[in-house]
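User: What would this chain look like folded?
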Amino acid sequence: MKLHLLIFLLFILVVSAAPAEDFPDAEISNSQVHAKLYLPDPQKGYYRGTRFDCSGVIATLEANGHSYFGKWFERYDPKLHDAITGPVEEFQTNNSALGYEDAKAGDTFVKIGVGVLRKPDEASYSSFNTYDIVDPGRWVVKKGPDWIEFVQTLGSASGYSYIYRKKIRLVKNEPHMVLEHSLRNTGAKTIQTSVYDHNFFVFDKEASGPDFIVRFPFEARSTGDLKGPATISGKELRLTSILQKGEYVYTHLEGFNSVSEHNDIRVENRKTGTGARQRGDRPLSKLAFWSNPSTICPEPFISMEIKPGKTSTWKITYEFYTLAASH
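Assistant: Here's the prediction, encoded as structure tokens.
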């Protein structure tokens, strides 16, 4: 028994001392911002789920002496649908994916930023499922000191093919980050899709609670019952208590017009004195908000229809600031 116990203790010691998995990554910085990003890799990447675009996953970002993104979830698995960090994006078509509704069980469909997926025998699509990736496409990554670009080229027998580009660059001498996108339709079918940014803000690891304020440039209203301890008044959403384990806030919002000026959201924390402003150059098609105890997530959606041979572009700008310097 003593020998067995000794072997067990040695096993625990070896496992606990084992180094963390080494995921492909890259870093970019300017005089104001430093960011670490995980790179798309079908075999060794940090994120191998099938919900979010796997490019541009920001592990950490620091500016003004504060951190704005980081790990927010408890359980990690590379194929878990939300084991991901940073301002990540998901493409949806009719709340599913390109070609899903026309595909039979065993056939394939396309998830932009992920690849060609196999449809199982299931009643309906779910973003929370992890599907088998038949073809992740071809990813090419280029970078400089203060920028990084991801290009995914994908073709499929379903008629949906594309070239997707995402460039993340830091603005010289400013605490600003810009996400520049283009999606070129190289297939035979029209690409009709929406894309939203989940954000997953984590300000200095502060718990989600009354110190946070989310500001909009319009009078915001919940479209239904507001789930969780929060209030919406005028142009502000506030949490009314610190969220506990298992608690969350979720709602869809209305009140915006079809102008790009309304695609402009600020998240601020009075305790840390920090803020982040996110501005898109396309009008909102939908807006949601979700928060759990460790992350604050405004989710702005835009929609696009891309005919064969055509390209759609869009841009998101982030400004990281301290509250005293926000005016």
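The CA atoms of residues 166 and 181 lie 5 Å apart. If you want, I can go into more detail on any region.
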